Amino acid sequence: MVSEAGAVLLVETVRKTGLDRAISAALAPWRRPRAVHDPGKILLDVALAVALGGDCLADVGTLPAEPGVFGPVASDPTVSRLVDALAAAGPKALSAIRAARAETRERVWKLAGTATPDAAGHVIVDLDGVLVLAHSEKQDAPGTWKKTFGHHPLMGFVDHGSGGTGEPVAGLLRPGNAGSNTAADHITTAGLALAQLPKKYRRGRQTLIRTDSAGGTHEFVAWLAQRGRWLSYSVGMTITEQIHQAVLKVPATAWTAAIEPGGEIRDGAWVAELSGDFLKGCPKGTRLIVHKERPYTGAQLRITDADGLRLTCFATNATGIPIAALELWHRQRARAEDRIRAARATGLRNLPLHDTAQNQIWLEIVQLALDLLAWMPMLAQTGEIRRREPRRLRFLLLSAAAQIVTTARRRYLRFAGHWPWTDVITDALARLEALPNPA
To answer: pTM of the predicted model, to two decimals?
Structure first.
């Protein structure tokens, strides 16, 4: 009997996407002479353990118990030595891991049979910060703006839309006291995210960068719109007194009803475009869209809200699209919170190591795990199950037990027929088996 035999879905995803070959080649410089274990296999084993719910390096110790699924697995000391070696190499090791992920991502998108994750032909990248608490003394874990202690990494996710989840494409580890409106950090994170995309999506209007008001700085917007890149952007802006007064002067006829994803009218919500000198210093063509909405019962209004309606605004350079659709586009940035919740459930609840360089390697491992949990549904599943978050995937699929059966000189996994999701697992395995092997 094999526990957590459903993890074979992730193992097959690694094999069919060629991630094992790509990362082994990338980490070849860190393989010691006469070493038994390949550094790429070691790192992927840790990522698999994290994808299955592990939250520290020692959790890789659960994999050797099932060699029929995971193969030979390195010991805890070997894993620790590799992480220390990669941390000591610094940017060189990070670049190697990221290059392997980018190479594999391009192959995954081709295997998935779609040019981009978005049905409309866009690639949407959401940037957002997340607080990771530290409960012991760790490097770069000072006090945060929430009166806690820890780190404040800046993450980037590709949004798959309503039909899927999302892929992590950037993770910049920062001290807990790092500012939210730091333009340099947003530029660095956006650069990391773009480097993960296929080359044709690293510049051009088909790629949209979305942020909340933390990204609403002149420097960051100017970087997105600089000549030769000219990406689309939709960044939240702070409601200033000047904007507040301008909203009060907008005539009732200038407001357009907001819409829902299906195109129906959103009750109690309106949008309008402000004209005026509100975006001084922003690139030419930047537009300011304001959204007002009737708050839910009991919500506390802010001083900048008007007539009992909550105000938000964002800046964008998109053209040729109705402002109601632009506002819906920006409002769907809230899905980034779902991605962060999934990351917290997949190794980002805490940073388990002491040094910042070690924890940056851990952040790359977390992203590898999240990649696998996003790529497997993309390649092997259809319908509602594609939208399931990691916790649900573990509960339904990855935790399923099976029996190893040997017949005709071949080995098979036999899942229990009474398990409600056995058909989902076997159908997914059949789809993965049908995919072409990497060259």
So the answer is: 0.92
